[in-house]
Amino acid sequence: xxxxxxxxxxxxxxxxxxxxxxxxxxxxxxxxxxxxxxxxxxxxxxxxxxxxxxxxxxxxxxxxxxxxxxxxxxxxxxxxxxxxxxxxxxxxxxxxxxxxxxxxxxxxxxxxxxxxxxxxxxxxxxxxxxxxxxxxxxxxxxxxxxxxxxxxxxxxxxxxxxxxxxxxxxxxxxxxxxxxxxxxxxxxxxxxxxxxxxxxxxxxxxxxxxxxxxxxxxxxxxxxxxxxxxxxxxxxxxxxxxxxxxxxxxxxxxxxxxxxxxxxxxxxxxxxxxxxxxxxx
Length: 281
Prior knowledge:
By secondary structure, the chain is an all-alpha fold. It has helices spanning 3-21, 24-33, 39-53, 55-79, 84-87, 105-120, 124-143, 149-175, 177-192, 197-213, 224-244, 249-280. It has two domains: 1-175, Phosphatidic acid phosphatase type 2/haloperoxidase (Vanadium-containing Chloroperoxidase, domain 1), CATH 1.20.144.10; 197-281, no CATH class. The radius of gyration is 20 Å and the shape is globular.
């Protein structure tokens, strides 16, 4: 069976699924899940984990999500397979006309984040929620008509491999973190070439911030109110800088680097200066 024939079979499965399940409520529900497969969601998640859960966990989450983005983009370009909605617009609740489908980045992210939850926590409730998160994330891509079943399966496999990297390789890299500061950004360019320039520049910015602040600072010792304010200020700043990253390539790299420095150093430092001025006033 050729890939085109398989996709036609899978199109019929998607149509059957939509005929059974589709309604206005589920359209809205699964469109909401589409935000989870976005740069904005990654910004929020990394910042929340970094400043509210723990700096070390935030650093690891940042690196694995950056690596996941580069890997998925490279694999999409390698296979260059269309999405269901590009072949048959009738199945698309939404559609991304300018990007390839295999493997599903959302399914990859769902499995990756669920796997990290299993690695980092032994609490049953967190693991159950992680499984539900991955399930709805994967199902949403098929329901919305933006991915085939095979796209989702491919994303699940790549996500599982990234979990192994997170659990097995990252602890080794943490012990040798100074060489990693050089090797990791360069590996992004090897994986995805010039398409990884934004990921590369953000990573370099983060690493400049880590060097400036000291990698082992424990932000969990700060007051909860301070950490919450830090989180909000940093997220707002990152979204503002992300708008600039959509410009031409040279400016994209500059904005990306500033985003990394803002996350790790400039955001908390700026807030500290403002609070200091307010206290003196």
